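Quick one: co-fold with L-homoserine.
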Amino acid sequence: MAQLSVFAPASIGNFIVGFDVLGAAIKTHDRVLGDVLSISDDKPAGYSAVGEFAFRLPQDKDNLVIKTAEYFNRQLAQLRPDIEIQKLTFKLAKNLPIGSGLGSSSSSIVATLFGLNQWYQQPFSEPLLLQWSAEIEGANAGAMHYDNVAPCLLGGLQLINEESQEVCQSIPFFDDLHLAFCFPDIEITTKSARSMLPTQVSLPAAIAMQKRLASFTAACFRQDKAALVSSLVDDSIEPLRKQLIPNFEQAKRCAMEQGALAFSISGSGPTCFAICESADKAKTIAKLIHDTLKQGDHSFYWTGQIDTAGARLVEA
Ligand code: HSE
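Sure, here it is.
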């Protein structure tokens, strides 16, 4: 039996500034934070899911692994008719909660496209896989955005401009900064968290957003921590979406009082994260925000950093 396994990491969409245009892959030593997909020619062909959050996944045509595999097969049939499409078996270890703000859907989509591309000896380029990931993610979320799929596929902190020839630019982050996270265990779909946003922003708001994103990017390249911290403000999206996260304000206050450099929502939430000056500080703050934000039985907290690697082959 032939078999391969791929890992696609969790990601933070938006990274406080850069709504829809900035995203980061996350690594942690505390748990497996990303989906692992095994593909084989084991018979009978089919799909199954294991892992802490598998029970929350649809098993039918709405399942993202099934949908994405069908999408890949259509592309294969159209663009590479010389390659014979095989009936395959997919086993997903679903390690990310859906509707969590951790790029859970991107992780499943990217794992499937990346894994199938590996299976068929890489018939398609990385930019094509990125574009397809964003299209499938867009159909799922109600609007196309690259800020989860890009870091999930490519790793690192990615600045996205799909109007440019190079859709993604990798931004250097700070090796000595650590991240503290809490998933409170409520579900917020990206679609619903996007539908609550205004369709237009005022000129002063647009200026503030572009000023902060530009300062953030320059601060990362200059490795200027003070400039980084002063750029990490979101007074456009966070005030609206925080209403969906019980005790958000208390958690933010606690984190900042404990010395967090910044605190906000990961993607469309409900996961929240803080940027911290040391691993120890991140540990203390992660526990503290979990004590404040925790809602359901599957809530959890962890610490990590930006994962410079994106989707990759792993041992089964
Ligand atoms: N940029 C997207 C949003 C990320 O905030 O709606 C979703 O994870």
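If it helps, The mean pLDDT is 95.
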